[in-house]
Amino acid sequence: MAQIPAPAQVKTKQAALVRMLGVSKMYVQPDNYDILILDDITLDIHPGEFIALLGPSGSGKSTVLRIVTGLSKPSFGTVLYRGRPVNGPNPHAAMVFQSFALYPWLTVQQNVELGLAAKGAAPAVRREKAVKLIDLIGLNGYEDAFPKELSGGMRQRVGFARALAVDPELLCMDEPFSALDFLTAENLRSELLDLWLESRIPTQAVLMVTHGIEEAVYMADRIIVLSKNPARLVADLANHLPYPRNRKSSEFIHMVDQVYKIVTGWDEDEDEAVQLTEDAPARGDRPRLRPIPYGHLSMLSGLLELVVDRGGTDDLYRLGAELFLEVDDLLPVTETAELFNLAEVSEGDLTVTALGRQFVEGDVNDRKAIIREQLREIPLFRLIDRVLRSKASHAMAKEFFNDILEEHFSVEEAERQLMTAINWGRFADLFHYDTDTELLYLADDQTGEMVPVALNDAQES
Ligand code: ADP
Fold first, then answer.
1. Measured in angstroms, how far is the CA atom of residue 63 from the centroid of ligand 1?
2. pTM for this entry
3. How far is the C-alpha of 137 from the C-alpha of 278, rounded, in Å?
4. Which atom of ligand 1 is nearest to the CA of 63?
5. Quick one: 125 and 178 in the same domain?
6. Are residues 97 and 194 in the same domain?
7. Which is nearest to 356 in space by CA: 309, 322, 287?
């Protein structure tokens, strides 16, 4: 683990509600290859804990939730609930989804009763329970309304009521506030916290997936950070700030900054970086292609210009807040800046390098040339370049590269990697791409430049 600031086991006296012991998860891709998503995750969830699970998008946070609730099976390792192996959906757990997941043809009341019906509760009991929950969650008067008549916030209230109706010991939430507007999300967060802190719900532990660091610090008393490709547990820290939390207090800002440092800095640890990339066998003994961050180059330019204007260094957390970017959106951009040697991130601060200054001060052609030189150092681009040069037509179908990438990443991730590579390569005039024919190709002025290529940089096609 890169950085574990403080032991977070605040309630170690109590036996764990959930134990994940050495859990790994592989997904079989359409080409029958396996991709390792979760790698050896060991995690205890104790009664009384409100845990926020942070990590880059696509890292495997939802997969952890599905495994903990028994909706998905680990490929290796064990999940115990109150000491017993979890085999199948856990009846003591309930899930709240980002997308509300309500049945449009059922009323509010019927949607809330669903979980109870599945548990075999008698109709009268179901009705009474649902009415109570609807009241608790602030939706009384809307029992007979259909989801389409409700605002997003009200729909998510139904989502909460439905999950809480079954008196879950473990409440799992998958980015429950991220589809809501700012004020609605803020109201729902504090209302849910009140229910939890005042023990008005029988829930014993909460596990919430989020991509918002502030949300995690605002709500959770324990914050877990996952890495990506594959997901490993890189930080587990306690958040002892007293409730109700004031986002403007210096303690709150300090805690957010701490988490930012961990989320942005975990891969500075050499060993961790190596394990994540070339040395980690994707399958068999073949080297893995290093994943590229999917940073937009226009955002990269904007960010670097802003930081240079401010003297060359700025606090990432402040930048994120000012640009209205969640860490999920900001990180790919800062990682791209680091990959291109345009900036360095350390201790939550971003500092523009000399090359970064050249980039900011240059015109569009200078910028393209800088990015082009940087891309030539990246195995994926060397691979693309080598393939295009080796063909008489200097053209190759996107699909071909997609197939290679799918041997290293999940289908979704492979597509994202390739689209990012295509965008970068086109910007830097390293190659062209025709969206109609889906061909990558070299134009005449690009075929002449020979690039020194190390044959072992990336896997042979
Ligand atoms: P997160 O919640 O952190 O965004 P997920 O747990 O949803 O991440 O997904 C992690 C990775 O696993 C992603 O690359 C996703 O494409 C892949 N994945 C998720 N579910 C499946 C599945 N059923 N089959 C194949 N790949 C999957």
1. 6
2. 0.71
3. 49
4. 6
5. yes
6. yes
7. 309
